Amino acid sequence: MSSNFGSMPLRYRISIDREQCMECGRCVENCPYGVFRWDGNRILINSRNCTACHRCLTYCPRDAIMLQEHPCDYRSHPVWTRSVRESIYNQARTGKIILAGMGSVANLPIIFDHLMLDACQVTTPPTDPLREPVELRTYLGKKPAKLEFTQKPNGDVELSTELTPNLMLETPIMLGHMSYGALSLNAHVAMARAAKETGTYMGTGEGGLHPGLYPYQDRMIVQVASGRFGVNVDYLERGAAIELKLGQGAKPGIGGHLPGEKVSADVSRTRMIPQGSDAISPAPHHDIYGIEDLPQLVNSIKEATEYKKPIFAKIAAVNNNAENVAAVARSGVDAIAIDGFRGGTGAAPRVFRDHVGIPIEVAISTADQELRKQGLRNEVSIIACGSIRESTDVIKAIALGADAVYIGTAALIAMGCRVCGNCYQGLCSWGIATQRPDLVARLDPDVASKQIANLIHAWTLEITELMGAAGINSIESLRGNRDRLRGYMLDEGLLEILDVKSVGA
Amino acid sequence: MCGIFGVMDKRRQMMDGSGIRDALSMMNERGSGEGAGYVAYGIYPDYQDCYALHIFFDRACESRAAVEAMLEQWGTIECGEAIPTYDQPNLKANCAPWRYFFRPDASLAPGSASPEKDVIANLVMQINAGTTGAEVVSSGKNVGVFKASGWPEDVANYYRIEDYEGYIWLAHNRYATSCPEQWERPDPFNLHDWSVVENGKTTTYGANRRYVESFGYTCSTGTDSEVIAYLIDLLTRKHGLAIDLAIRALAPPYWDEIDRMPEAEQKLNRALRFAYGSATMNGPFTVVAANPDMMVGFTDRGKLRPMVVGECGDRLYIASEETAIRAMEPCVESIVRPAAGEPVIGRVAP
After folding, report:
1. Does B222 touch chain A (CB under 8 A)?
2. Which is the most buried residue in A228, A321, B311, B330, by most CB within 10 A?
3. Which residues in chain B are closer than 8 Å to A161, comparing Cβ atoms?
């Protein structure tokens, strides 16, 4: 049964400047969404299929293509906005939940942008990173709260505290968990090479570990999610660390969904699921119905890997974040990744993506404060994730109490992603979020890995400069050092929660 | 820009305060005339088993009554009196310095390895964070802090520092950047055994403060030296670190240096950085600290502030400038300038 709505106003309009166009056909070849087609020797346009992925614009040799967003709008209304109206049309027609890709589009203030960094002037000198060391080396994992020594017969003391395994990062920036399946193998290979080159780590996501990534396995954090895709003891043993995914910032409280279109033969083998079937991760882990079940899972994984690898847990940032973090910190895990409500996703119900959860800035700060209050801060490292956009977000997250960050969308953008938000369609024109071989082949892992490594390197340099200017020469002296932040145009309640003073104070 | 000075006699031979005053005044160029302080060990032999509490009262009557009531709750006051002072034309007194010789009731801190010190620490935190208008400026046995807003010589003369004899002295010439009128702000800072003077301004005050406060300390003045004194107490008394390891935790070697160490040393240094990352001090500082048995000096690992060490007979000197040492000991036998991050540890003979 069809609806009586007719067609919606165009979201994007593509136009071709026929004076400039030389009819080379690159737009037709490059657009996987079917916007362009040949009609005899003329190129026709179907703007309705456009996702604003910009592939045609970038490959048009004459800059003849123009894209316009919302060329025709509804009557403007402050309450009944375009997106509200279209959601209603959509749901009135389908009776279904609306899915959306990438991170939240809710137009809410970004706290990071209202936090100003400090620099030294006369009472303390800035450090010049060109002349003096500034240490970004970061260790993730449990740290002893205090040390024990034994006295040897000759009077010397010897350390008797045994350190548990930590991951050593050259820079506090890691590549976050995005699964093989959601992303192409070339994208995964590019990220793995970049992680190796920059001395950091990357997350596998919940899609298992493809044999093509075995050469980089000492740089991989293998994920165990509620669907347990691709999990066996070989998988656990290959990773440098193991992450239990308990939640995701883009969709707290629900599981994951990889559409069957993206489950190719290779993906099916890696995930250990039938080809072409939807991969659905349940909302909870079905062996964790209470916090007391988590230590059992952590211990069983530690037993399976002989206590040689750090175990991480990832949770979504929600209201009782501090309590969740303190609970997980007692479960035996070595690090907790906290995913804020702006976290990215291949696909999530729109209502979850835009309405559930709390900002990462608040989640990190309250987690750090609560762990310190309960004497648990050395039990776990904290990893901030969920739309870390630039080096200043990294440094602010660390000053609020994080040890390191995961970047996801930023790494995709470094590979060429234009944030069109159509990852769930499986037609990514950049070869990043697709399994179609001809599209995957568009992403050259050598080039893409260099671009990601460049990004990490550039951010690392910026962080070094910012730390030097603040007179801080090791990253642990920045961690939780909120006094080096000031809030600008943040309300008093939020400043108190963040434990940050106002500008001028 | 502050000037610091420390002197220790290894055989506990006494020095009166006049030489220390002259040494500190020699560095007036490093100060702003808005704060100076002295601390001496061994000055109260008649009450050496009591904790000497030096307290500044904003309001001599009400503040005193409130503090004395609190002290009576936690132990016994053996003696309470005004610290003798002598008006100086350039000093404007805005509080009343008082001292109590106090015996804490150890039974009030059950389960502690050092119950008396826990009672004292608790009292100091409570009074200093409270609103009684009182500030405990020193709280150790046979030790006392004398400080005020003014030039070193005026402060010394105000207390007649030459009337006190000690075997370890620390002194501080302040270049004020905030609250010049508050007498409790200049160094030294003291918590029972430990006293601290600092030349510098750390860039990690917030991180260090949050760390030390998570162990029950309360920082109430916002100064580095207060945090440093509490950190040293935490690391040495509660965590049982030897002083050299405690200093290493506060000012650790770079990772590159640790990577080049022999394996056992590497393990130890890595463990220290793992455990005490939040206690690590960053930014420019030279710290001289003392307890009844030792005097130590250490700098940030880039040595952004000066530290000069002199030796002469039984005496060890640590100062911001050589000229201060020579003011007190014109014939000093050796002068060295330790490398960045290299601590100096002097112990009193047992």
Report:
1. no
2. A321
3. 271, 275
Tokens of A441: 């082949």
Q: pLDDT tens-digit profile of B41-52? A: 999 999 999 999
What CA–CA distance (Å, rounded) separates A194 from B36? Answer: 55
pLDDT of B278 above 90 = yes
Cβ neighbours of residue A282 under 8 Å, at least 6 residues apart?
Answer: A226, A227, A255
* Spatial separation of the C-alpha atoms in residues A355 and A311, rounded to whole Å: 30
Contact at CB, A143 and B278, closer than 8 angstroms: no
In a domain, B289, yes or no: no
The verdict on a CB contact (< 8 Å) between B201 and A124 is yes
Report residues of chain A scoring pLDDT below 70.
Answer: 1
Helices in B152-214 by DSSP H: which ranges? 152-159, 205-213
Which of B259, B256, B252, B307 is closest to B282 using CA atoms? B252
**Per the domain annotation, does A490 fall within a domain?**
no
Alpha carbon distances (Å) from B138 to A393, B150, B347 = 43, 19, 22
Domain CATH for B41: 3.60.20.10
Residue range(s) defining the domain that contains residue A17: 12-96
Shared domain for A183 and A87, answered yes or no, is no
In the A/B pair of chains, how many CB contacts fall below 8 A?
A: 101
| pLDDT number for residue B1 | 66
Name the residue among A297, A193, A310, A170 with its Cα closest to residue A240: A310
A464, A179 Cβ separation under 8 angstroms: no
Closest Cα in chain B to A161: B271
Whether B149 maps to a domain, the answer reads yes
- Which residue among A40, A70, A96 closes a domain? A96
What confidence tens digit (pLDDT) does each residue in A417-460 have?
Answer: 999 999 888 999 999 999 999 999 999 999 999 999 999 999 99
Q: Give the neighbor-by-neighbor strand order of the sheet with B334-336.
A: B143-148, B36-41, B168-173, B3-9, B315-319, B308-312, B334-336
User: Of the candidates A436, A452, A468, which is a domain's last residue?
Assistant: A452
CB A434 within 8 A of CB A415: no
Cβ atoms of A408 and A176 within 8 Å: the answer is yes
- Tokens for B233, please give them: 């107490």
Instruction: Supply the pLDDT for residue B221.
Output: 87
Using CB atoms, which residue from A125, A146, A481 is nearest to B239? A146
Residues A55 and A191 in one domain: no
Does the distance separating the beta carbons of A147 and B241 come in below 8 Å?
A: yes
User: Which amino acid does the sequence have at A66?
Assistant: M
pLDDT tens digits, residue range A318-347? 999 999 999 999 999 999 999 999 998 888
Q: Which residue, B279, B276, B262, B318, is CA-closest to B6?
A: B318
Looking at residue A1, its pLDDT comes to 56
Q: Total structural domains in chain A?
A: 2
Please report, for the domain that includes residue A72, its CATH number. Answer: 3.30.70.20
Q: Supply the ipTM of this predicted assembly.
A: 0.92
A53 and A176: one domain?
no
- Cα→Cα distances A360→A203, A357, A367, B310, Å: 19, 9, 10, 53
CA distances from A501 to A112, B2, B206 (A): 14, 27, 12
Hey, is the C-beta of B223 within 8 angstroms of any chain A C-beta?
no
Q: CA nearest B295: which of B72, B8, B44?
A: B8
pLDDT > 80? residue B285: yes
Partners of B270 on chain A (C-beta within 8 Å) are 163
For residues A305 and A312, give the distance between their C-alpha atoms in angstroms, rounded to a whole number.
14
3-state secondary structure at position B127: helix
**What CATH number is attached to the domain comprising A283?**
3.20.20.70
- Return all residues near B156 (Cβ < 8 A) that are at least 6 apart: B17, B18, B20, B21, B24, B36, B38, B146, B162
Q: What is the spatial distance between Cα B164 and Cα B174, in angstroms, rounded to a whole number?
A: 22
Same domain for A83 and A176? no
